[in-house]
Each structure stands twice: as C-alpha cells, then as structure tokens.
C-alpha cells in the first residue's frame, strides 16, 4: 500500500502562507501530476510529501501512516530532482548504490539491483563514468536509476525534464511512461509546468493556483469540463477563448471547436501562425482579446480575410461572475 | 585587430614578468645569500661564484633554533588542524541552517577582520598574562587560532554555499541524516577548500611574529620568527646565517604549496560544481 492522503495541509514560510488547506487523495499505484503557474506551490507540496519541508498544519499520510514527523529518509520515497542532483564525486554505479550502502544492504544484492536498474535504463555502459562525463539525458536516466534501485513505495519527480532539450524531453517522457508501466505498484507524483507532460503521463492531474487546489481530475475531465475559469485558461494549448459578457459571466470555447466558413459570427483574420500539421488563425471580433481558431493545414485563411464562423452550443463552457462553471 | 591583440599580449607578458621579478627578487636574493660565503653576500651579482652550506650547518647546530623549529611545527600543526575542525561546522551552520541571529553572527565573525592584529595586541596580552598563560605554547596556539579562524570560516562558507543544496537533499532522501550528508557529500566536494584553509592557517601561524613577540620571552617556547630575531646578534652577526634562517622559515610554506598546489588552485577557483 502506498496511497497518499493529504488533509487540510498548510505550509507557511514566515508570514507567507504558501499552501492553503490542501486536501488530496492519491491512490496506490496512481500517477498524479501537479501543474500550475510559477509560484503556485506545486514544488512546495511535493517537498512537503517528500519530507524535505515540514508542514505547518494538517496531516500527511503515506500508506495509511501519518508521516508529519517522519524524516524524509524513513518515508519510503525516492525523488528525482530538476537538476538531477547526482553526486559529482561518485561514479554512476556509486550514485545508484548509495542509498543501499547507507542501508548496509549486502554487496551482492546491491550489485544485482544496480545492474538491473542500469539494464532497464540502458545505463550499463556508463556505470563507471562520472556525472560530468555524461550528457543531460544520461544524467537524468541515472537520477531515475538511483531512485529505482531504492525500490520505493512512492516516486517523486520535481520537473525532471525541464533541463532537457525538446527532442530529449519527448524521448525521456516516453521512458517515464514505460517506467510507470513496469512499476504498477509504485505511486508516482510528478511536478511540471508543461501541459503536454501532464496530459500525456498523468492518471490524474492536480491543478494548483496560488497555494490552493483548483481542480483534480483525469486529463480528459480537466480539458472537457474545467470547473473554473483558471483551469479553463490554464489547461489546453492554445488556450481556451474566454469571451467576457457585460454581466461578468464568461463564455469559453476551445480553438478547435470553432468552424470557419459559415455561421452567424464574423471576424477579421489579424494574423496566422503556421505550425505544419495545423495552424492558428487569430480573429479580431471587436473584443479585447483576439479569438484563436485552430485549423487544419488546408483550411488556413489569409491575413485580412473577413470570415464567418460558428461553434456547436454543446461545446461551449459557461462560467459565472465568480469564475465557476455553470453548465 | 589581430596585430592589436598580439601587442596587448606582449605588453601583458612584460608587465607580468616585471611584477613577478619584483615579488621574487628579494626571495631569490635571500636564497642565494644563504648559500654564499659572508664575504660574497654584498656583491652585486645574483649568480654566486662560491657555494657554501655552512650557514645551514651553523643554524642547525644551534639548540635554541631547533627548539624554536619544534615549537613552530607543534603550534602550526595544532592551529591548522583545529582551524579546520572548528571552521567546518561553523561555516556549515552559517551556510545551511536558519536561526535567529545567524546573519549577525556571520557579520561579527567578519567584523573581527576589520581590526588589525596590532589593535587587539594589548588586550590579548593583558588577558593572557592575567590568566597566567604568558610564555606558553597554549596561549600562542589559541591566539593564532583566533587570528585565522574568522577568515577560514568565511572562506569555507563561500565554498559550502556553492555546493547545491539539492545534493544534500538527495542524500537525505537516500537515507542519510543532515550531518551524514555533510560528511558524505559536501565535505568531499569542498576538500580542496579544506586543504587550502588548513594550509593557510599553518602558514599564518608559522610566520606570525608580533603576537609571539608580545607573549613569549622564554627561550624554550620561542617560535621560529622569534629565533630568527635572535640571530641578529651584535657580537657574532652573519648575514648568511640570517638568510639561512629565512630559507628555513620559508621552506614549509613552499613545500606545502608544492604538495597541495592542485588542491590550492582548485580550492581558489572551485564553485563550479554541476550535477
């Protein structure tokens, strides 16, 4: 059992309340991703779960045991850091064996576990190298390998891909997805600001905003039924069009749900972004913000065109003046 | 552009050589004078026509000089070891923990460096005399420690600051305590700085003159700089012997630097630790 239960968790840094009354239930074996803008508290929440930060209030349970006062080393967790945090003076093998050596595990067991993790992550040829002799992607794999060797109940990732270039990020993302499949019993909690990572990897996503949980749900639930204006604007790229009415309510419509060519509404194409497979047209419809429309390659209009558009009513999201979903 | 940068290179080389000559000339002169017969020492040429090791034989034949050599080695070694043992936890605490008054304590430690040693000389001597510790190596060891520790703490704090906290956090998650992380991760990474600080403390104590002069009068506890002073004997004065004494005083510093030069240079330029 490695479920995580967070009840009324608060975290203060001096007078500043960084996490406010967080409640979360993460099931055993689940892959949960925390997303949110910079400073929303997602990394702090992860560090509270890890034990690197003490919580200021509330309760934190891992595997049914309250761990508020349990040190990080006794929580049965492993963590992959954004900067990899590999020990520079140790070889890859020593980095991976470090936690087991601290536990005074038998030498043969350490060797077997390190070799096993190295094979899983294609690190076998690099075991005797030092971190400085590895590329960014290899370092990240060593950091993951170091965590695997511990055979943790809970795996924590703090923005593990943000130091990698775009191509490597895609490759490592796939590796993490495969890793999750190979460790079905291990609960994984992952922090990122990258929506693609969140949408592709997560069983469930937790959207945080200003130290509070905005919404928890599967990627599909968050995308299809955002419960607040914040989630609507945050999840999805390009972001949802949010059209404000005079009474303070807001109508939201995803760029791909708008059909150009016919319909009761009209707008002028202000500019077009070509992305290859599809393109984004930005229409001036007389509001403060331009209306974003996602089009396939063949249907892209020209800048300056005045076009008609429409959208299916059932695809419209409505929010009240307080920014909460109404339909 | 290319011509200009070449010219700049040449000018910089000439300036470097000039500065080096200025710094090294007295040292070279001391060394050469120590192996010249007394009659040749005041000649203008730097290249010795005759070589003698009589001055060294002379100096090592003096019992008081040998006692001073032993005293200096004892005080220097203890000061170096204690500086490292005290400065590491102090610097670690200032760098890694948050507590009331931490920054003020750090400032106070640094502030002690704003006073020249001479300014605190009188109070130190009065305190040590009233404690009945004048003319002891213990008193000298403590004063040398007090002299070198503040700068040692600040030097080490800088190096510890440069070691990413995440490395220690990773170690803590891997199962060590905070102190365990310090010993297993941070200390090995700042080893060049620790060697640099230890060497610095030894050299500082080894060459210290003013405090030793004020605290020590008895021959059994004199240190090398004081013994060197006694060589200026108006009845049997020899420049060659004084220079040989100078060479003996300079030798450990040079040997230490040669032994640890990689560490020392590494210690001075460290900080670029990347995961």
Structure write-up:
The complex is a heterodimer of chains A (327) and B (275). Chain A has two domains: 4-224, P-loop containing nucleotide triphosphate hydrolases (Rossmann fold, 3-Layer(aba) Sandwich); 241-319, OB fold (Dihydrolipoamide Acetyltransferase, E2P) (Beta Barrel). Helix content of chain A is 26%, strand content 32%. Chain A has helices spanning 42-50, 92-102, 107-120, 136-149, 166-182, 195-201, 219-224, 229-234; strands spanning 4-13, 16-26, 31-35, 57-62, 65-66, 77-80, 154-158, 187-191, 204-209, 212-217, 241-244, 250-253, 259-274, 278-284, 291-296, 306-310, 317-319. In chain A, the strands form four sheets. Chain A has a six-stranded mixed beta sheet with strand order 6-7-8-3-9-10, sandwiched between helices. In chain A, strands 2-1-4-5 form a four-stranded antiparallel beta sheet, with helices on one face. In chain A, strands 15-14-13-16 form a four-stranded antiparallel beta sheet, with no helix packed on it. In chain A, a hairpin with a 6-residue loop joins β14 and β15. In chain A, α3 (107-120) packs across α4 (136-149). Chain A starts with a strand and ends in an 8-residue tail after the last strand. The relative contact order of chain A is 0.12. The mean pLDDT of chain A is 92. Chain B is mainly alpha-helical. Chain B has two domains: 1-52, no CATH class; 54-269, Orthogonal Bundle (MetI-like fold), CATH 1.10.3720.10. In chain B, 73% of the residues lie in helices and 0% in strands. Chain B is built from 13 helices and no strands. The radius of gyration of chain B is 23 Å and the shape is globular. The A-B interface holds A 50-52, 71-73, 77-79, 81, 83-89, 98-99, 102-103, 131-132, 139, 146, 150 and B 164, 166-167, 169-177, 180, 185, 188-189, 273-275. Chain B: It comes from Devosia elaeis. Chain B: It holds the Pfam family BPD_transp_1. Chain B: Keywords: Cell membrane, Membrane, Sugar transport, Transmembrane, Transmembrane helix, Transport. Chain B: It is found in: Cell membrane.
């Amino acid at each position: 059992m490695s479920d995580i239960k967070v009840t009324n968790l608060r975290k203060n840094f001096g007078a500043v309340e960084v996490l406010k009354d967080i409640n979360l239930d993460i099931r055993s074996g689940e892959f949960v991703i925390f997303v949110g803008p910079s400073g929303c508290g997602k990394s702090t929440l992860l560090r509270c779960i890890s034990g690197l930060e003490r919580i200021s209030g509330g309760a934190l349970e891992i595997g049914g045991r309250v761990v508020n006062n349990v040190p990080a080393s006794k929580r049965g967790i492993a963590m992959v850091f954004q900067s990899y945090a590999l020990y520079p003076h140790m070889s890859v093998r020593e980095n991976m064996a470090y936690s087991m050596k601290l536990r005074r595990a038998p030498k043969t067991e350490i060797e077997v576990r390190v070799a096993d993790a190295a094979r899983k992550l294609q690190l076998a040829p690099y075991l005797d190298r030092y971190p400085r002799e590895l590329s960014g992607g290899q370092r990240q794999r060593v950091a993951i390998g170091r965590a695997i060797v511990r055979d943790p109940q809970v795996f924590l990732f703090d923005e593990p891909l943000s130091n990698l270039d775009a191509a490597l990020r895609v490759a490592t993302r796939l590796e993490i997805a495969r890793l999750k499949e190979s460790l079905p019993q291990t609960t994984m909690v992952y922090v990122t600001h990258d929506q693609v990572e969140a949408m592709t990897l997560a069983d469930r996503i937790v959207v945080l905003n200003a130290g509070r949980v905005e919404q928890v749900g599967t990627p599909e639930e968050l995308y299809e039924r955002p419960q607040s204006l914040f989630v609507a604007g945050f999840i999805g790229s390009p972001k949802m069009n949010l059209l404000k009415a005079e009474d303070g309510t807001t109508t939201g419509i995803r760029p791909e749900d708008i059909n150009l060519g016919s319909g009761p509404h009209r707008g002028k194409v202000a500019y077009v972004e070509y992305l290859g497979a599809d393109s984004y047209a930005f229409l001036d419809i007389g509001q403060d913000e331009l209306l974003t429309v996602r089009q396939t390659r063949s249907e892209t209009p020209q800048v300056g065109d005045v076009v008609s558009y429409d959208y299916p009513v059932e695809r419209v999201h409505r929010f009240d003046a307080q920014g909460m979903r109404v339909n | 552009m290319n011509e200009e940068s070449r010219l700049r290179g040449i000018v910089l080389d000439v300036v470097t050589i000039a500065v080096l000559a200025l710094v090294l000339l007295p040292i070279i002169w001391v060394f050469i004078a120590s192996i010249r017969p007394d009659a040749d020492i005041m000649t203008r040429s730097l290249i010795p026509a005759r070589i003698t090791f009589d001055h060294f034989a002379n100096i090592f034949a003096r019992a008081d000089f040998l006692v001073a050599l032993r005293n200096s080695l004892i005080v220097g070694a203890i000061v170096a070891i204690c500086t490292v043992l005290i400065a590491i936890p102090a610097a670690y605490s200032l760098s890694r923990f948050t507590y009331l008054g931490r920054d003020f304590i750090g400032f106070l430690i640094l502030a002690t460096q704003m006073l020249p040693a001479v300014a605190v000389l009188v109070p130190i001597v009065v305190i040590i005399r009233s404690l009945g510790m004048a003319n002891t190596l213990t008193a000298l060891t403590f004063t040398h420690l007090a002299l070198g520790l503040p700068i040692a703490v600040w030097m080490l704090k800088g190096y510890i600051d440069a070691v990413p906290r995440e490395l220690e956090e990773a170690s803590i998650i891997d199962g060590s305590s905070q102190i365990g992380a310090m010993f297993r991760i941070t200390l090995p990474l700042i080893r060049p700085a620790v060697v640099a600080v230890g060497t610095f403390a030894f050299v500082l104590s080894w060459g210290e003159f003013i405090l030793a002069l004020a605290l020590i009068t008895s021959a059994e506890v004199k240190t090398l700089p004081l013994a060197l002073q006694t060589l200026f004997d108006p009845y049997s004065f020899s420049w060659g012997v004084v220079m040989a004494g100078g060479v003996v005083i300079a030798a450990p510093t040079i040997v230490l630097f040669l032994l640890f030069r990689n560490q020392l240079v590494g210690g001075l330029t460290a900080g670029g630790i990347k995961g």
